[in-house]
Design brief:
Radius of gyration: 20 Å
CATH superfamily of the domain at 65-177: Tetracycline Repressor, domain 2
Order of helices and strands: HHHHHHHHH
Strand content: under 5%
CATH architecture of the domain at 65-177: Orthogonal Bundle
Helix content: 55-70%
């Protein structure tokens, strides 16, 4: 059986979803725009019409990630802690499923303003539902966001010599017991 080769002529049209899916199947630590274009079977100039640079690519990926991780239910006074727990586990699972993504978000980087604000706004809403005032809800966001992202992005390779890696469930429960922040 012969492998089919693409017919000559105009390449398939690109779209946001195809670009994001191809990128997320790669190791984002080493992916180049040329490699991504090759994976999509388009010229790198065609890819640059959709994505101006690697920061633009991470903007697309981050928007997709926020769509995946934000719970559909709104945080309320009765579910805020469960909502934050659900969000953290979703971040854990989705960020670690894409090679290089957790390390990227744990390191200093430029944030996608729209997706970052959606995530930030919902987490602050959860802390406000917990009874925190505006300033303490903002502080709680920083503590929660930095802690969860840094834990997920940490390289736990040092624990392969017979030691168990740090448990995310214990980390998360300890973190949530201390939040929202208080003066």
């Amino acid at each position: 059986m012969r492998e089919s080769t693409p017919a000559p002529g105009r390449p398939a049209r690109l779209n946001r979803q195809a670009i994001v899916q191809a990128a997320m199947r790669s190791d984002l630590r080493t992916l180049t725009m040329r490699e991504l274009a090759a994976a999509l079977r388009v010229s790198h100039s065609a890819l640059y019409r959709w994505v101006p640079d690697k920061d633009g690519l991470f903007d697309l990926i981050s928007a997709e990630m926020v769509d995946r991780v934000l719970p559909t239910a709104e945080p309320t006074t009765s579910n805020w802690r469960d909502w934050l727990r659900d969000l953290a586990w979703r971040m854990h699972d989705e960020f670690l499923a894409v090679p290089g993504y957790a390390a990227h978000v744990a390191a200093p980087h430029r944030h996608n303003p729209e997706s970052f604000e959606r995530l930030r706004g919902q987490v602050i809403t959860a802390f406000r539902a917990a009874g925190a005032g505006p300033e303490m809800a903002e502080q709680s966001w920083y503590i929660y966001g930095l802690s969860v992202v840094r834990w997920i992005g940490a390289d736990h390779a040092d624990y392969d010599l017979g030691q168990s890696p740090p448990r995310f469930d214990l980390f998360l429960e300890t973190l949530l017991r201390g939040l929202p922040a208080q003066e």
